[in-house]
């Protein structure tokens, strides 16, 4: 079912999977306010609808996203930039906070804030020969969209600063070695395997997956004792779910579980 709200973002719902395609191919899917606003609306829909279990975020044309729209940046006032980055920040937070897995499917280039948007997702599936670049220094900008946060936690401060300072492309093989991506897939199979992966996740225990996402995200800024207590409280909620009861019954009956997300 096609539910896209404007030409800058194509949204389709196919069973339990919502697909969001950044759609400004003539500018390598550089962000526009319309695109970011549509993405926020799509994420809210996914959060509100129980039958949507997973979200795929990808780009049309030759790339995932070039990030900020450099061609129009010199026409924007400082307030315009402040407001635009604020909208991007809201979208990043929505990706992190939605209690469903969000999978970035990256091909071509993911550059600048486009890379950071992918890093906000829960998993990154990358096509062969794609490249990642923190391109902000090339145009005299600091990182936005959470790059300073995500890169520091993934790679440590020294490597993060090297990538930001030098703005050199990272080959996908290196990104896989460093843990920036989960899988590298032949480009011809990327879309199909991404959908299959999302469907596979959608068959899992939805409430438990949402809780695990929340706990892992909180662990980035919490002490061990705090996370242990949060896990303890979460488990008392999980044992009341239908998915837990189904998992136990399936185990006892020696069959695969059939989860409903309830």
TrEMBL record:
Tell me which InterPro entries the record gives. ClpP/crotonase-like_dom_sf, Enoyl-CoA_hydra/iso, Enoyl-CoA_hydra_C
What is the top-level taxon of the source organism? Bacteria
- SUPFAM superfamilies in alphabetical order: ClpP/crotonase (SSF52096)
Which CDD domains does this chain map to?
crotonase-like (cd06558)
Similarity comment = Belongs to the enoyl-CoA hydratase/isomerase family.
Indicate what this protein is called per its UniProt record.
Enoyl-CoA hydratase
Q: Which organism is it from?
A: Halobacillus salinarum
């Amino acid at each position: 079912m096609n539910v896209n709200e404007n030409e800058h973002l194509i949204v389709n719902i196919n069973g339990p999977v919502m697909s969001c395609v950044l759609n400004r191919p003539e500018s390598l899917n550089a962000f526009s306010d319309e695109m970011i606003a549509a993405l926020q609306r799509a994420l809210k829909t996914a959060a509100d609808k129980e039958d949507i279990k997973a979200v795929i975020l990808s780009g049309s044309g030759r790339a995932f996203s070039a990030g900020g729209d450099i061609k129009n940046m010199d026409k924007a006032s400082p307030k315009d930039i402040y407001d635009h980055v604020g909208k991007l920040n809201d979208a990043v937070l929505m990706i992190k906070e939605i209690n469903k897995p969000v999978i970035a499917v990256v091909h071509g280039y993911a550059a600048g804030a486009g890379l950071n948007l992918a890093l906000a997702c829960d998993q990154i599936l990358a096509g062969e020969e794609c490249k990642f670049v923190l391109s902000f220094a090339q145009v005299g900008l600091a990182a936005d969209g959470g790059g300073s946060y995500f890169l520091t936690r993934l790679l440590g401060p020294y490597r993060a600063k090297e990538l930001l300072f030098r703005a050199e492309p990272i080959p996908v093989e290196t990104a896989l070695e460093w843990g920036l991506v989960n899988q590298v897939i032949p480009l011809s199979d990327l879309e199909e395997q991404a959908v299959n992966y999302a469907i596979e996740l959608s068959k899992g225990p939805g409430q438990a997956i949402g809780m695990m996402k929340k706990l892992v995200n909180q662990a980035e800024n919490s002490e061990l004792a705090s996370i242990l207590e949060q896990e303890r409280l979460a488990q008392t909620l999980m044992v009341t779910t239908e998915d837990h009861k189904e998992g136990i019954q399936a185990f006892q009956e020696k069959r695969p579980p059939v989860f409903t997300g309830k």
